[in-house]
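Late entry, written up from scratch paper. The run itself happened at the end of the previous shift, but nothing got recorded in the book at the time, so transcribing now.
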Amino acid sequence: MNRTTGVVGVVCTLITQVAVALPADRVVHVGIHVDPSNANSRVEYYLSLSISAQEQDGNDIGWRIDNFKITEKVVLGSDNTWDVDAPLVDTSDGLWWVTHVDPDNPVRTDFTTIAPVVDTAVANDPADDDLEFDVSEGVYTQPSGGDPWTITTAINFEFTVSGQQNPAETGSDEPVEIPDIPGDPTTSSQ
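Output as recorded:
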């Protein structure tokens, strides 16, 4: 009887030590348009989240946000950019948990529930002030004419220039695009 129990114990130990291969690092982009009700309006801000998988629980993967970059697309002149490494993700373990249809092959459509992140991004131009930001998942209500973009979700956001009391830009339950960025292999599939 002890021999059987010992063999079962060894088999269970070996099974629990099998490593799960996590998906490759990637970048998730969020496009905030000037007019969220107009699919053809220009992108005013891009949020770029460089992420790496840390844990897996079934189809759920806990992603660490390695870098959070905010790019303000300027019509005339150079874009303004701010970024922060390892921003504060407001979850119990600091990870962005995403449910994937196929956890071995995450796609853009999986990343429509945006992680709650509150932090300060450093201006890439020393002449600019830093940018305090608060981003979280919003409630998306599909318009009667259908989604404005191929992959659409909603976010809440607030961008405040450091030292200022009033936000420079805000959005509540604002429709945003999860775009495919040409030339970026991490966004090429839906």
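The chain is about 10% helix and 40% strand.
(Scratch paper discarded after transcription.)
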